[in-house]
Amino acid sequence: MIKKTILAVFGGLIIAVIGLGVYVASLDKTAQARLLLSLTMREGEALFQTVDIDYDAPPAVLGWLDSRNTRSLNGQWSIIVDPMGVGNPGSPFGGYPLNRQNTSGMTLVEYDFDRAQKINVPGDINTQDPKLFFYRDGFWMFRRFEAQVPESGQRSLLHFGAANFTATIFLNGQAVGQHVGGYVPFHFDVTDFLVDGDNVLLVHIDNRLDDSTIPTGRTDWWPYGGLTRDVHLVNVPRAHIVNAKLALAKGADNLIDLSLTSTGFDADTPVRLRIDGLNVDAEVALKRDGTANLQVSAQPILWHPDNPKLYEVVIEAGESRLRDTIGFRHIATQGRQILLNGEAIKLRGIATHEEPIGQAGVAHSAAHMRRLLAEARDLGANFVRAAHYPYNRHLAKIADEMGLMLWEEIPVYWQIDWENDETRAIARDQMARLVQRDWNRASVIIWSVANETPNTSPRLKFLRCLIKDTRAMDDSRLVSAALLGGSRPDFALIAARLAARGIASPDVPEEAKQVFRGILDEAGYFAPEASDGYTLTIDDPLGAHTDIIAYNQYFGWYYSVFFSRTLGIDEAVLRPLMLDFMSDLKITSQQEKPIQISEFGAGAKYGLRSDDNHIWSEDYQLAVYRAQLDMLGKNPDIQGISPWVLKDFRAMLRPLVGVQDYYNRKGLISPTGERKAAFGLMQDFYRNRW
Ligand code: GCU
Q1: DSSP state, residue 669
Q2: d(CA 35, CA 51)
């Protein structure tokens, strides 16, 4: 009997497979792919092996988002945490994308998204539930939404401002696609996945990072996971403008260049460009590939921090009509100078992280960014280094309005897997998406490809590839990277100068002086005098490929630790000598280019004071800033400064209980916005001294 049953089942299966094959063959290509993908998805783990990103060309970023026919999908989403991958497709009950329901009361379903815990989107998951503070693994985000299948001639795009860090999208039980890499926008055409009425959107997110990702798993900022930016359903005409870039023509103040990409139009479809404030109303015909280039005459008032002039720009083609407010300006370098509209300008900056003031987690709203930038402006800054990854799109829009120049960056941070093709593809994808999202923002003057990466040939090759990509997409802005400070030879020579100062100092104990004498004896003829300064020359080969030589240096904070360990002298002796030495330090670079001190700083717990300048006190942070600014004020080659950092920020590397408590405390303001003593010093320096 059993044998007959098995045969019957087996035979049935064979007939079913043949039937399915016949059915699939009868479908059109898209439906076929869809069905097979969904079957594959149901059967296998296909969409859960991170897709191989073959970066054969920059992705097409949907630009001009705020002027499109968008519907927000922000709000309360359900979350199910799933570190064991219980819900993955292919698991015994088919996985969460099927969103099975126990309507009968007899169906075994071990999950229920409708009743699951709720999390606000946009927002990170780590600070909305204390249980998830350190969470770094897989989880599911779910929401229902009412929609109508768009009429023919229209398409529906599902657009994410970002998802940290690998997102796999399912709509109504079917796999839509996957994006690898956080912080940047991506979208999928979901027209064929939508149903009339109730739609079920499910996003699997994995916020794990490792040695092969960008960033890696080791970052001095919190790897906030989740749908950290706005989510939109965007309805577009089948034929629509995808993106467009406007900029002053190279070397001209009276010519504006438009380059545009589109899809679905016939060749020769007219594209109209209007800038009413400039009496521009011009047309150009689309080429067969959907692109168009146009140069128009115009006399814009050039955007400048002192007068951040923006113009209303409208672009139309067919039913596609986009608008944005855009500023026009030039940014260039000449020798050691940075030229904004042909005039030398100093970057009076501050570095930031994307965290709101007075609120936990990731900053994602226009209000969050306005508050952060207002604080930077109150500091006297005209420039913000938005470290270390792309921020939400509101940053640059608001910086345009406020007249703050920006450095935007991708998280190629510290040691990266330089020879891994997928790692490079993720970095290139992130740079391409950042550039194509913000290339109309006058405030953005610098694209940064890295931060503090070790000087090796695989790293140089990797970063030169990113620089080449960036310049190919946008040659109207500067390119840089924050370089690691100090080399071994430098430090050996600086140690001798500290020794000379130590011997001359009445405050240095005799045993330390013994060590210092030994150092000077070794230096012999080259032994420096106590008053000798030092000229440090930045010689990182990457400097030959960037426009600005950006340099992170921590003489006042970290280097005393290094010297203490190598010299066997207590930091209590070295730190005062270092602060004294700093005012006689010169910094220059091999390349005749502008130098920006892209980081310097010291940690301080707000409210902690010390008559003895003890570390972690506001007084010691103040002393470091005094020495640092004294040095910078005497360094004519330095044209930009962005102290580290505006606000204390979350960091897993910083556990010191009672002082850090998982905050990096180098902020000039506390997490809730209280200004430390060094804020006033920096403010005075920018307003009156530099
Ligand atoms: C480095 C790094 C920052 C880090 C800072 C610090 O320079 O670029 O990301 O937070 O130093 O140690 O505080």
Answers
A1: B
A2: 19
290 with 395, same domain? no
Torsion sign over Cα 631, 443, 337, 481: positive
644, 648, 649, 666, best to mutate for ligand 1 pocket (most atoms within 8 Å of CB): 644
Closest CA to 409 of 353, 332, 457: 353
Mutation pick for ligand 1 pocket among 222, 389, 452 (CB with most ligand atoms within 8 Å): 452
With a cut of 50, list the residues of the chain below it in pLDDT.
Answer: 1-14, 16-17, 20-21, 24-25, 27-45
pLDDT at 142: 98
Whether residue 60 is contained in a domain is answered as no
In which element (H, E) is residue 626 found?
helix 618-633
Same domain, 608 and 494: no
pLDDT of residue 24: 44
Helix, strand, coil share of the chain (percent; to 5): 30, 30, 45
- Quickly count: other Cβ atoms within 10 Å of residue 151's Cβ: 6
Q: Are residues 381 and 439 in the same domain?
A: yes
Residues in the chain: 690
SS3 160: strand
Alpha carbon distance 386, 198 (integer Å): 40
**Angstrom distance (rounded) from CA 149 to CA 191:** 7
CATH number reported for the structural domain that contains residue 252 in this entry: 2.60.40.10
- Residue 611: which CATH number? 3.20.20.80
What is the C-alpha to C-alpha distance for residues 431 and 497, in angstroms, rounded to an integer?
42
**Residue after which a domain boundary falls, among 183, 218, 237:** 237
Where does 474-612 have alpha helices with state H? 488-504, 510-523, 559-567, 571-582
Regarding whether 430 and 378 lie in a shared domain, the answer is: yes
Same domain, 160 and 36: no
Q: In the block, which residue shows the tokens 């990113």?
A: 466
Cβ atoms within 10 A of the Cβ of 225, count? 26
Residues 218 and 92 in one domain: yes
pLDDT for res 137? 97
Q: Please write the tens of the pLDDT for every residue from 494-511.
A: 999 999 999 999 999 999
Q: Are 55 and 8 in contact (CB under 8 A)?
A: no
For ligand 1, is residue 664 a contact (CB within 6 Å)? Answer: yes
Q: Helix axis angle, 571-582 relative to 618-633, nearest 10°?
A: 30
Distance 220 CA to ligand 1 centre (A): 6
Tokens of 264: 């679905």
Question: What spacing in Å lies between the alpha carbon of 557 and ligand 1's midpoint?
Answer: 11
Cβ–Cβ under 8 Å, residues 478 and 464: no
Name 219's bridge partners.
none
Q: Which of 302, 329, 356 is the last residue of a domain?
A: 329
Number of domains observed in the structure of the chain: 5
Task: Provide, rounded to the nearest whole percent, the portion of the chain with pLDDT above 70.
Answer: 92
Within a domain: residue 233? yes
Cα separation, 553 vs 349, in Å, equals 15
Among the atoms of ligand 1, which is closest to the Cα of residue 482?
8
Which candidate, 599, 586, 592, places its Cα nearest to that of 544?
592
**DSSP state, residue 145:** E
Residue 305 located in a structural domain: yes
Q: Looking at the domain assignment, is residue 334 inside a domain?
A: no
Closest residue by Cα to residue 397 from 374, 363, 369: 369
Claim to verify: residue 492 and residue 378 sit in the same structural domain: no
Cα dihedral: 466, 469, 471, 477 (round 10): -60
Range of the domain at 314: 240-329
Category of 300 on φ-ψ map: left (φ > 0), alpha (ψ -120 to 50) or beta: beta
H-helix segments, 441-570: 457-473, 488-504, 510-523, 559-567
**Are 107 and 138 in a shared domain?**
yes
Give the whole-angstrom CA distance, residue 11 versus residue 5.
10
Contact 552 CB / ligand 1 (< 6 Å): yes
